[in-house]
């Protein structure tokens, strides 16, 4: 049962419903989506557009990627939107899910208090930046959950040769937006997807301190249920096809331009 406060019903606009002949509205498509696409505001744009195009509202649960995969695999979601490529590949290989369609990308960034910029200023790559963080005596807020961001964080710490359970790393259970607020309170570093940070930075007093490099690439994919497990395969494919369509790509590529002066996501080719 979807009882978390993160559940949001993206209802088909009245005009689109009338365009469908005023017939009874279809059952909502249950989407388990990574919190970053929810916290950045992108789903608030994509959801109504998909509903208008297909006559079907979205019911969204914002969770970590691992949780989203589990909800899809156990029939509690019809479709998932995640950003954890390793776990997605494992779920596909094991038959827990039936398909994976990359739809967009952005990047991870290392953020922290503006005055900490000098700590990582000489880093040539993310490994060097994280080693500088570890040697600085400053704290780092970790998602510490089942999110794709946390999985990438663990990979980055391992690549830097730093134990993920080090004392300066503060585990935090919450969404990306909540983790950013915690980093501001703790006066600490954290890893964020660029979209959520730019959309939520407000008065946090945090800045992007390191960015760039293929190890910070952040690919989002739509996952569909495995045929033998039941589920709404048709609805999942319709959602993936919408995001890959010219209309979906325009919405993804244009998101953030009017408000922040730059796109927050890039549709995949």
UniProtKB/TrEMBL annotation:
Listed InterPro entries: ABC-Tungstate_binding (IPR052738), PBP_domain (IPR024370)
- What SUPFAM superfamilies has UniProt attached to this entry? Periplasmic binding protein-like II (SSF53850)
Please state every residue range assigned to the domain named PBP: 31-245
Cite the PROSITE patterns for this sequence: PROKAR_LIPOPROTEIN
Q: Which Pfam families is this protein grouped with?
A: PBP_like_2 (PF12849)
- PANTHER family with a match to the protein in the record: EXTRACELLULAR TUNGSTATE BINDING PROTEIN
Query: Under what name is this protein listed?
Result: Substrate-binding domain-containing protein
Origin organism is: Nannocystis bainbridge
């Amino acid at each position: 049962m979807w009882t978390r406060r993160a559940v949001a019903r993206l209802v088909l606009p009245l005009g689109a419903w009338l365009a469908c002949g005023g017939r009874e509205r279809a059952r909502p498509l249950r989407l388990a989506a990574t919190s970053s696409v929810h916290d950045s505001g992108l789903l608030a744009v994509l959801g109504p557009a998909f509903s208008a195009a297909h006559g079907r509202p979205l019911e969204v649960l914002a969770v970590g990627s691992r949780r989203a995969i589990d909800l899809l695999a156990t029939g509690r979601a019809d479709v998932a939107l995640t950003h954890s490529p390793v776990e997605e590949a494992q779920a596909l290989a094991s038959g827990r899910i039936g398909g994976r369609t990359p739809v967009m990308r952005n990047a991870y960034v290392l953020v922290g208090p503006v005055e900490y910029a000098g700590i990582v200023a000489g880093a040539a790559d993310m490994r060097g930046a994280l080693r500088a963080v570890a040697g600085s005596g400053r704290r780092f807020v970790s998602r510490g959950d089942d999110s794709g961001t946390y999985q990438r964080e663990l990979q980055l710490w391992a690549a830097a040769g730093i134990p993920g359970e080090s004392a300066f790393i503060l585990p935090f259970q919450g969404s990306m937006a909540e983790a950013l607020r915690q980093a501001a309170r703790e006066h600490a570093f954290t890893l964020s997807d660029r979209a959520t940070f730019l959309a939520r930075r407000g008065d946090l007093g945090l800045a992007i301190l390191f960015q760039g490099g293929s190890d910070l690439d952040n690919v989002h994919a739509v996952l569909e249920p495995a045929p033998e497990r039941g589920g709404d395969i048709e609805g999942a494919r319709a959602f993936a096809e919408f995001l890959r369509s010219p209309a979906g790509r325009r919405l993804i590529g244009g998101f953030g331009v009017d408000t922040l002066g730059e796109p927050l996501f890039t549709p995949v080719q």
